[in-house]
Write a structure and sequence with these properties.
By secondary structure, this protein is of the alpha/beta class. It has one domain: Cytosolic phospholipase A2 catalytic domain. Helices cover 41% and strands 14% of the residues. It has 13 helices and 10 strands. The strands form 2 sheets. Strands 1, 2, 5, 6, 7, 8, 9 and 10 form an 8-stranded mixed beta sheet that branches. The chain has a two-stranded antiparallel ribbon with strand order 3-4. 39% of the residues are buried. The N terminus is likely disordered. It comes from Thioalkalivibrio sulfidiphilus (strain HL-EbGR7). Keywords: Hydrolase, Lipid degradation, Lipid metabolism, Signal. InterPro entries: Acyl_Trfase/lysoPLipase, PNPLA_dom. One of its GO terms (biological process) is lipid catabolic process.
């Protein structure tokens, strides 16, 4: 009874403190797009066929996508299994963390592989104290993650991103959500990379990556021009065809063929967990279940919309349960779990059978993916 009373008191305290927070004001009068932004035209002639990579959200399951990309780079036969050069790459949340390196090509595989192998929860965030939580905007501090990005997002890397546009008309972006307006925002990484004389060029690029992965409540939001940006996965699990078309608008002519590759860095299910009968814990679990359902819906909607446009759409999903147990909240980026996911993705890419799924019928359902789990509240 004592613990529940404390929880209720804390909740009431948070509600009362919220009335003391000064509302924010921004100079921009509308919910328009963020600058800088490329508006074209492309510096190269229109292509008849383009390759698009979309990387989803997924937390520590993102190691699956990195492993898959590494294995995909090694696949040479048959020719259609080879990893193409991507004309457009877009990431959401976890996918945003490695979309730049995936976009630039296999020569960056070693870097992101070593980064994921050495990553721990402490490299991503550390938990705030209770007073800091009550007076702040998140449960955790993500300065460690920013420091990790500062080590790999260099001037030379951004020059490579800029040159990919200038020489080949290729571009990369991430997606965040404007918390005030409620809109998904396409953040143009290529446009930032092209501003070579901008003093805050690198920090702005990192801001975009941090915004795309700023899971609300857990991680602090990112403020740009006074606007509050949070994790793109709040609205969508994976980039949509409409957002990809925005990036294609710089071409003088629409390509005749679009090859869309989706790497889904999650099992598309809600991980079973025995929930205690308490309002706060039930509220937290409600978010988990809703997130699992939204991820399935988002991937399905992207597949349907891409097929309606006549795009050839192929995808892989980190489904099944090869890596157990799942990481606990206090060690969410568990190295052993992420190494297992990396190896799972790598094995998927180099398997004899083609790893690619096509169409809605191949999309795993939550009932199928959780069939192997024992009930989490069962007596043992």
């Amino acid at each position: 009874m004592g613990k529940r009373l404390i929880s209720v008191c804390l909740l009431l305290l948070v509600v009362s403190l919220s009335g003391c927070v000064t509302p924010r004001q921004v100079d921009q009068p509308t919910c328009s797009s963020f600058e800088p932004r490329l508006v074209g035209p492309s510096p190269v002639a229109a292509r008849e066929e383009i390759n698009v990579l979309a990387l989803s959200a997924g937390g520590p399951w993102g190691a699956y996508g990195i492993g898959f990309l590494n294995g995909w780079s090694e696949a040479q036969e048959p020719p259609e299994r080879r990893r193409p050069q991507f004309d457009i790459a877009v990431g959401v949340s976890t996918g945003a963390m490695f979309v730049t390196h995936a976009f630039l090509g296999p020569e960056y595989d070693d870097l992101i592989r070593e980064q994921i192998k050495s990553m721990t929860t402490r490299d991503v965030f550390h938990r705030r104290s209770l007073p800091a939580i009550l007076l702040g905007d998140s449960l955790a501090d993500t300065r460690p993650l920013r420091g990790m990005l500062e080590a790999v997002i260099t001037r030379e890397l951004l020059d490579q991103v800029a040159e990919a546009w200038e020489r080949e008309g290729r571009r990369v972006a991430v997606i965040a959500v404007d918390m005030d307006c409620g809109n998904p925002e396409l953040l143009d990484l290529t446009a930032v990379a092209l501003e070579r004389d901008r003093p805050d060029r690198i920090s702005r690029y990192i801001d975009y990556l941090m915004a795309s992965s700023a899971s609300p409540v857990a991680f602090p939001p990112v403020f740009l021009e006074g606007r509050m940006l949070v994790d793109g996965a709040l609205r969508q699990h994976i980039p949509s065809p409409g957002q990809i078309e925005e990036l294609m608008s710089v071409y003088s002519e629409a390509p005749q063929q679009v090859n869309l590759y989706l790497i889904v860095n999650s099992p598309l299910m809600t991980i079973p967990e025995c929930i205690r009968d308490h309002v706060l814990l039930i509220a937290l679990r409600t978010g988990d279940v809703w997130t699992g359902e939204r991820s399935v819906d988002s991937v399905a909607l992207t597949i349907v919309q891409a097929e309606r446009r006549g795009w050839r759409t192929r995808y892989v999903v980190a489904s099944g349960t090869p890596c157990q147990p799942n990481p606990p909240p206090d060690d969410y980026f568990n190295p052993a779990f992420m190494q297992c996911q990396y190896e799972y993705g790598y094995r998927t890419a180099v398997s004899v059978e083609s790893p690619w799924l096509e169409g809605l019928d191949a999309l795993p359902s939550p009932r199928e993916t959780d069939a192997d789990f024992p009930h989490p509240c069962a007596r043992r």
